[in-house]
Specification:
The complex is a heterodimer of chains A (227) and B (241).
Chain A (H helix, E strand, L loop, with lengths): L2 H9 L2 H40 L4 H16 L2 H11 L8 H28 L2 H9 L4 H16 L1 H12 L13 H12 L3 H28 L5
Helix pairs in contact in A: 2-5, 2-9, 2-10, 3-5, 4-5, 5-7, 5-8, 6-7, 8-10, 9-10
Chain B lengths: L1 E10 L2 E11 L4 E5 L6 H8 L7 E6 L2 E2 L7 H5 L2 E4 L11 H11 L5 H14 L15 H13 L5 E5 L7 H16 L3 E5 L3 H7 L2 E6 L2 E6 L1 H7 L3 H9 L3
Parallel strand pairs in B: 3-8, 3-9, 6-7, 7-8
Antiparallel strand pairs in B: 1-2, 1-4, 4-5, 9-10
Classes of the chains: A mainly alpha (227), B alpha/beta (241).
Chain lengths: 227, 241
């Protein structure tokens, strides 16, 4: 048997693929659901945190920085396991889907806050001065003049980081969330064939390549280079 | 209209203003000149408290804006400021730049704000650029939009911080013409600039600052022709006029 035929037998077994395609399809939907929720909630939370941080209230800043630094340092898998297996001990049962969503949202929010903060700091001081000199209050200057510029400047690192974090939905497999990886590995054990894994990989490609292109489109359309 | 009393300002231990007393009457155009580091820009920025003085008072139209409980945002509308680097909002069109404060601070409706903004753009001759973005405008046009942005709020006094210093020479004239028009229309203006010819033609008074103090002041004729202090004469000799 040629190596191509062996490869095809191991990874492209058509019967196995057809049998488990629906399962992986439903896994895809779960992955999309979690990913979409994580992106929206994570970025919104990141924006809220950065606006709060800009008021420079010492205690609040301390809390934000502690939160952000912790969530950027701990591997998401550790947090997922901690929440899923640890929380029931104090009476909170969240279920796998919620745990994965919550952990990835907090991680994305932490990275997004840092990215937005860097953008905020790099907006020219003259923009603040011009805005304040026309009578705009601090919050107004922040919302209407400074943040719009900060966000546009940080779109490239933001889309990058978002794509990286949402791929971690695969970690849901460890706590039984029925997303792509879980369905794929289950199918592999039932069929004794690696083809479902291959289809799983294809499912990720199908899902994230458009996202990558979307990110690049957003970048070219809205992002600025700092002059 | 604008009065500065015993103004002191320091950045940490570096004293920048060492007791400035200056009074500008209505409709007056006062030109402030001096070497870099003399504190001219800082003085300007203290007039609308973009920099906080460490001592002294600033009065605008009779009200002390350095008083503790003053509504600074409200009073800043009465004081227009034009910056050396224009500081237009790059993500907004010229019209949006001019109308932003009208909508958010003066709380005008979108329509009203738009009309007032167009009127301001008309005064600086840029109605046809209302929907252009700052990066589509020349430096002179951007500065004129910046002037319109300040004018739209109908300020009592306008502060100019080296308004033409960042412009290519051929664009300076347009901005100076707008400033001359404003002067003729009766605006009270405090201008920090090196444009000595403009000072000769348009200024009512010229103030020479050096190392945080006002060395000398007088009419353009007095200052440019027969300045009393040597420091003034030395400086004026160095600067082309």
């Amino acid at each position: 048997m040629s190596s191509w035929q062996r490869f095809a037998e191991a990874f492209l077994d058509w019967d196995v693929i057809v049998q488990y395609l629906p399962a992986i399809g439903s896994g895809l939907i779960v992955t999309v659901e979690i990913a979409a929720l994580v992106v929206i909630c994570g970025i919104v939370l990141g924006l809220v945190l950065v606006v709060l941080r800009s008021y420079r209230i010492t205690v609040v800043n301390w809390l934000i920085i502690a939160f952000v630094d912790t969530l950027r340092s701990v591997p998401p898998l550790v947090l997922i396991l901690l929440l899923y297996f640890g929380m029931p001990n104090i009476g909170i049962n969240m279920g796998g889907f919620v745990v994965v969503w919550l952990v990835l949202t907090l991680v994305l929010a932490a990275f997004a806050e840092e990215i937005f903060w860097a953008g905020l700091l790099s907006v020219d001081k003259g923009q603040w001065q011009a805005a304040r000199s026309t009578g705009l209050g601090y919050t107004q200057a922040l919302i209407y003049v400074v943040m719009p510029q900060a966000v546009r400047m940080t779109i490239p690192p933001l889309t990058n980081r978002t794509i990286a974090i949402t791929k971690n939905t695969a970690l849901g497999t460890v706590i039984g969330v029925a997303e792509i990886m879980n369905e794929a590995t289950t199918a592999v054990s039932f069929s004794g064939n690696a083809s479902p894994l291959f289809v799983g990989a294809l499912a990720y490609v199908m899902l994230f390549v458009p996202v990558v292109y979307l990110g690049r489109w957003i970048e070219t359309r809205f992002a600025w280079r700092k002059n | 209209m604008l009065q500065v009393v015993d103004l002191h300002m320091a950045f940490g231990t570096l004293e920048v203003l060492k007791g400035i007393d200056l009074a500008i009457t209505e409709r007056e155009l006062v030109f402030v000149i001096g070497p870099s580091g003399s504190g001219k820009s800082t003085l300007l920025r203290c007039c609308n408290r973009l920099e906080e003085p460490v001592k002294g008072q600033v009065f605008v139209d009779g009200t002390e804006i350095t008083a503790p409980k003053v509504n600074l945002n409200k009073f800043r509308q009465r004081i227009g400021m034009v910056f050396q680097s224009f500081n237009l909002y790059p993500h907004l069109s010229a019209l949006a730049n001019v109308s932003l404060a009208l909508r958010k601070v003066s709380k005008r409706s979108r329509v009203e704000a738009g009309e007032l903004a167009m009127a301001a753009l008309q005064r600086v001759g840029l109605v046809d650029k209302a929907h252009s973005y700052p990066n589509e405008l020349s430096g002179g046009q951007q500065q004129r939009v910046a002037i319109a942005r300040a004018l739209a709020l109908e300020p009592k006094v306008m502060l100019f911080d080296e308004p033409t210093s960042a412009l290519d020479p051929e664009l300076v004239g347009d901005v100076l013409n707008v400033m001359k028009d404003m002067k003729d229309a009766g605006m009270t203006m405090l201008v920090v600039s090196h444009e000595m010819r403009f000072a000769r033609n348009a200024a009512d008074r010229v103030v020479f600052m050096d190392q945080g103090v006002i060395v000398e002041e007088g009419t353009p004729k007095d200052m440019f022709g027969k300045a009393q202090h040597k420091r003034t004469r030395d400086f004026l000799q160095q600067v082309d006029h």
